Structure formats: C-alpha cells, structure tokens
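To assess whether ligand presence alters the predicted conformation, the chain was also submitted together with MGD. Input:
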Amino acid sequence: MTERNDTVHYDGPSGGWGSLRGITRVFGAEWTTPAATETLASQNKPEGFMCVSCAWAKPANYHAFEFCENGAKATLWELTTRRCTPEFFAKHTLTELRTWSDYDLEQEGRLTHPMRHDKDSDRYVPCSWEEAFAGIGAELKALDPKSVIFYASGRASLETSYMYALFARLYGNNNLPDSSNMCHETTSVALKKSIGASVGTVVFDDLAKCDAMFFFGQNTGSNSPRFLHPLQEAAKRGVKIITFNPVREKGLESFTNPQSPVEMLTGDETRISTQYHQVRPGGDIAVLLGLCKHVFAADDAAKAQGRRVLDTAFLEQHTSGLAEFEARVRATAWDDIEKESGLPRADIEAAAQVYVEAERVIGVYGMGLTQHVHGSDNVAMFVNLLLLKGNIGREGTGISPVRGHSNVQGQRTVGISEKPELVPLDKLAEQFGFEPPRDKGMNTVEACEGVLDGRVKSFIGLGGNFIRAIPETERLEAAWRDLRLTVQVATKLNRSHLVNGQVAYLLPCLGRTEDDVQATGSQAVSMEDTFSCIHGSQGRRTPASEHLLSEPAIVAGLAKATLPPNPKVEWDRWVGDYALVRDLIAETYSDEFHDFNERMWTPGGFYRGNSARDRVWKTESGKADFTVPEGLNASGIEDDEGRYRLITMRSNDQFNTTIYGYSDRLRGIEGRRDVLLINPGEMRRRGFREGQTVSLVTDAGDNVHREVRGLKVTPFDLPDGCLGGYYPEMNPLVPLQHHDGASKTPAYKAVPVRIVA
Ligand SMILES: Nc1nc2c(c(=O)[nH]1)N[C@H]1C(S)=C(S)[C@@H](COP(=O)(O)OP(=O)(O)OC[C@H]3O[C@@H](n4cnc5c(=O)[nH]c(N)nc54)[C@H](O)[C@@H]3O)O[C@H]1N2
Ligand SMILES: Nc1nc2c(c(=O)[nH]1)N[C@H]1C(S)=C(S)[C@@H](COP(=O)(O)OP(=O)(O)OC[C@H]3O[C@@H](n4cnc5c(=O)[nH]c(N)nc54)[C@H](O)[C@@H]3O)O[C@H]1N2
Ligand SMILES: [Mo]
C-alpha cells in the first residue's frame, strides 16, 4: 500500500472546525447574518424547508441544526445576494461566456428575468413571460412530439414533477429522462429485477439496530454528510463498518461532530470504518463474490458442528436461483477474485467474517457501484450477499442506495419516467380524459444518441446542467446547435444555457427556500428522501427577483401555450393551489399517497412503503432472485499496458456541476481542479514528476479522439492501474456507448484512458 506521506492527503477528521471554515471560505461572513442563520435553522425540519442538496433523510428527532457543511453551502448558494441580470447578458456574448469556467458562470448569481437567445447579436435578450410561453408553444406545436425531450434534474418538487410528466404525456411522448439515468438507474433496474422494489429497503430506524454496515462506493463525508451523525452513533455503539472504496475517503475514516461543542473543543474524533479496503475500480463483483465464497465456506464449517451460517429458512421460503449462484461462487478461484478486486484473499475473508458473525447487516452504496459497465451486476451481487443471511426485509437490515438529488427518487415515484410500464397510464387516462402514449420514451443516453442522429429536435430542461453532466461532451455540444428548440428552467447560469438550439429560452425560477405566493396564498411543496419518506417544504425567503415564476407556474405556462384546452386539466387552478396537485397525486397513486395533504407535515415524513421490506417480492419468480454475474470485472475494461481506469470524482466543494470553490479539503487537494491523481508507484514506473502537465486520451478502441489537456500530475493514494480526475471536467473523455448494459447508466467510475506526456 502507498505511503501516505508521499501523497496529497488531509490529516484532520471530517466535520470538525474544517467544515465551518469550509462554509466561511465560500461565503465569507454572509453566512452568519441573521437572515441566513434563520433560514439554515429551519432546514430539514417539520414546517421548514427541505435541503436543496442531497436526498438524505430528515429525521423526526432532529438536531438543533439539521444541516451539514454542504447542505449549508447549497442553501447559501441559492440565497446569494448576487444577480445575473439582463445588463450582464447585454455585456457578454454567448461565445465569450462559453470560455468561462463552471465556477465563474454560477458566481454571477441568481437569474432574474426570462431571456430569449438572439442569434444575430449572439446574446440573451429579455423577453416577457407571455412572449416566452407563446414562442415555445408555437415551436412545440410545429414539432413531432416524439422528437422532444423533457429532462428533469432531480430537484423539482413532487407537485412540479407530476405536472411536468403529465404535460409530456398530454403532448405525446414518454421522453422523460431524469438525472437518475446517470446515477441510480442501475439501482432501479437491478433492485427491481432481484427483489421487486426499485428503491432501497432501509429506513432511518434500521441504522440504530444493525450490527454491521458494508459500504461500497459512497462518499458520505462529502455527499451526504448528515449521514455522518447516525454513522458516528453506530460506530460508538460498536457497529462494525466495513468499507470498500479505491479512495480513502475521510468521512468514512473519522468524524468530529461540528454540532457537538465538546467534540469541537476536545478535537475528539470517532473512527468510522473498522476495516477499509481499497478495491480497484470495477473490482466489486469480485469482492462481493469473494465475500459470498467465504460465507459458503463458513457455512460448510458450521454444518460440520450442526449449525448453519446461511439463513436456510429464509432462503427456502423467499428466494430462487440459489443453487446456480452457489455453484458459480464455488467454481470461482480465489486467484481470479484477488486479481480482479486488487485485494488479498485474507482481507476479503476478514471482511466476510464480520458478515458471518453479524446478526443484522445493512448494505450501503453509491456511484462506485452504479456507474460501471456491469453496474447492474454490482448491485445484484450486493443483493446476493445480503440474501444469504436474510438481511433484507428484517429490522436493522437491508440494502440502502444513497440517492443523490434531493427529490430524484420522488420524481420517478410520480411519473417522470421514460418507461411506460412504471407509470399508471390507465389511471391517468381516466383522470384526464386522454390516451397517453404507450411507447417507450428515451432515457438520457438514448436522448443523446437521438441528438447525434437527428431524431431529437428539441430539449426542455427542468433544472440541471445536462450538457455538462452527460458523457461525450464535444460531439454532443456540436450536435446540440442543430436542435430546433432548447428551453432551460434554472436558478443559476451554467454551460447548458450557452450551448443552444436555433431557438432558445432561459427561464428563471424560484428556489425552494423562497416564498412561493399564488392565488390562494403561500404554497408549500413536497419531496421524497432516500428512505422513501415524503416531506412538506415551506420556503419563506423573499424571492431573488420579482420576475421569477415558480416551477409549477412555468410548467403550466408552457403546457397551456402548447396543448389544446382540456376541461379536466386545470393548469391555472392547480397553480393557484398546489394542494389540488397533491390531491391528483393521491388519486393516481392512492396506495402510497392517500391523505397526502394531511400527512405531508408528519415529523420525519410519511413512509410510502416498500414491498421488499415486507418480504413481498414483486419479481418475475415471485421470490427474491439470486443473480449469476456475467463476469468478475465490473468495469468492462480489459487490462493492457498503459491503459488506466479513470475514476471521475466529486470534490467536497461542489454539488454536481455547481462548483462552490477549489478546496477538496477532505482529500487535501487545494486551489485547483485540473489534477490527475495517480499513486506514487505508478508515477515512478511511468517516469512522471509531481506537477508535470499531461493529457488524458480515451482508449475505447472506437477511433474517436477524445482528450483532456493540461492536467497536473498529483500523487494520491489510489490502487495501481487507476487514476482520478474531477467530474465534470473529465466528461469529454467518457464515450457515450460506455454505460451499464441493463440500465444505460454511464460508466463514469472506470473510463479507459491513456496518459500522454
Ligand atoms: N456535496 C455534494 N453532495 C452531493 C453531490 C455533490 O456533488 N456534492 N451529488 C449528489 C448526487 S446527484 C449524487 S448521485 C450523490 C453521489 O454521491 P456518491 O454516491 O458518494 O458518488 P461519488 O462521489 O461520485 O462516488 C462515490 C465513491 O465511489 C468511489 N468509487 C469509485 N469507483 C469505485 C469502484 O469501482 N468501487 C467502489 N467500491 N467504489 C468506487 C469513489 O472513490 C467515491 O468515494 O451525492 C449527492 N450529494
Ligand atoms: N463524469 C461524471 N459525470 C456525472 C457524474 C459523475 O459521477 N461523473 N454524476 C452523474 C450524476 S449522479 C448526476 S445526478 C448528474 C447531474 O446532472 P444535473 O442534475 O443535470 O446537474 P446539476 O449540476 O445538479 O445541475 C445544476 C444546475 O441546476 C440548476 N438548479 C439548481 N437549483 C434549481 C432549482 O431549484 N430549480 C431549477 N429549475 N434549476 C435549479 C442550476 O441552474 C444549476 O446550475 O451528473 C452525472 N454526471
Ligand atoms: Mo446523482
């Protein structure tokens, strides 16, 4: 293993004073003003607003400050006093703005006016909302509905999302890709297939009841820091936490609670992971199979003494496919497992022994499992492991994909899906008196393919920064200009607003922290967290500009300008009172959302249930299915001299493509993002010096040249044969066809590259 002193790293704990300094560094003293602290104090609490950052749970027994370093950054980012006005756009052409960094673009602050792209002057010019809606409506009416994409980025509320999906279907398509197509789509597909539920089975209370947690490829300290509190409590309770991650992420090593005065003053750190294994990227199928192999071996040994390790009653009653899976595991050699995982057998066995001894185990994972060519097999293998000892559908156990955007899971729940079979179309037909389209729509990768081959003519973005988040940046940016119409609904300026179709509009919306006043008064909205709990959210801040509309109002405005009138579709009434939209959701999804308006303020949210948690398996076999993986290598990349697996990473100072700053504090990388992380041994073998500038080129064997230049070689503790670089800067290197087979989630966590000096 690499000597830490040879590498760039961070010595402090996650949390601690560093997290408070982190907020201050980005926002200066602005964050401690009474207005800001008042808003932060109501974050993630009943009657307050739900954080705009990640989808982590909002517990009923909340802390005084139920927010974290990065949640505070996300809130303050929306509350900024800076404004990106028509005067700004008058000064800068889009050609010029395309040379700006992601950071500088969003630094201009909140968008204030609806804008239309004027091609002649190459600028955005202000336009009225009426003009924007009429112009977009006229374009959409002239287009073939199948050629239009309705993207959503995972933030918009359940109310907005329901209206948006209805708009797309009334218009005539299921082209509703979501950011989850780049994220946990792998989960939706693999969990649905294996356990019949497309989301995680764990709830908040389970965290306090488990004896062990297995963590695969999820970076808690940066991406869901409020999870550090229950993790710290678990660690103190003696729960064994076993982590598999190529990077030694600080939040999974140790934590000082910034909200505990005692810990802050004494510098008391809690160690989080009891074992930390630096698996090679794409090595998880091999690890998980190795864990299962040891479980079978331990069961063999126990049998000899008249005991069992496997939960045989559960396996018999609830699962199918065990025999075939077991045969594959027994037939796989430890040599192959060691080679593919990059880990010694003894390490995998030590981890597996914890699994064998624990009565209640929770499996947690993130993008390290989902964003691979065989990501679905990664997830299915995790399920296999948990099934062996009945660790699904029992208190204190379960599988827990940690979801990304604050309402990404909820958007899928209320109909934002390109898969018609996941949406109650008959119910919608009855409610709104129309014939919904029944053909499959395009997901993110398919939408990109459609842009490249000309099938797609228009893109509507409900939030997000699509062009920056997707793979294959250069070819797609070029093809984007051939689109007829692009429309972006957003709070802040980003690159997706600068790469436009022939007709383009930029529509600014209210943020979730802001007071949303409609005909019947201030409106609340709702979201679903990672544990399938639904929460109300009430914004109270004065809107950033008097010209902003709410997202529901924008969706309604677009729909009214595009669609023929329908007496059952009352856009204006719905916008006047969002409770009516919640009634519609309750009608469409009556099992999960009955009494929605009454229940939305339940402390901790109301749980919409999960069949797999109740051991009801809505799968083809009616049981929980074991999956035999295709192979051991999840990356789909063959090893070759000079070919590396590039991990694209998030820093601690960004939310996806929103870059708050240049400090990746928890990894000790400061002041820059144009780094190439590589371990010192690889550096020496290749003859690279620290700080040397190199390029990366993609090695996908498809004769397309993809290159990112100007990267500074930085020694970092990573396994051999892999490299690290930041998302989204590395996205030009990701081939569009490099994605999970079953779900088409881009394989951002192992991109085949070569280094060019
Ligand atoms: N502050 C902040 N919070 C966020 C976000 C953000 O950008 N910033 N993004 C939000 C969104 S949309 C999402 S989806 C989540 C993302 O949150 P995560 O799921 O944590 O995603 P990443 O940070 O991309 O990568 C997760 C981890 O996977 C590891 N990894 C990479 N390759 C492999 C592998 O092959 N095997 C294993 N076992 N591990 C691997 C990486 O080292 C990293 O620690 O966070 C959400 N929350
Ligand atoms: N290489 C690589 N690529 C990746 C990933 C990776 O790990 N590696 N991760 C993938 C993942 S997990 C995801 S989820 C995607 C993220 O892809 P997206 O969700 O498309 O991107 P974001 O960066 O979250 O979008 C940021 C923008 O959202 C807008 N915004 C913020 N708040 C609001 C709001 O309340 N309403 C509206 N309408 N707009 C708002 C702002 O204008 C801001 O600029 O990226 C994917 N791309
Ligand atoms: Mo995500």
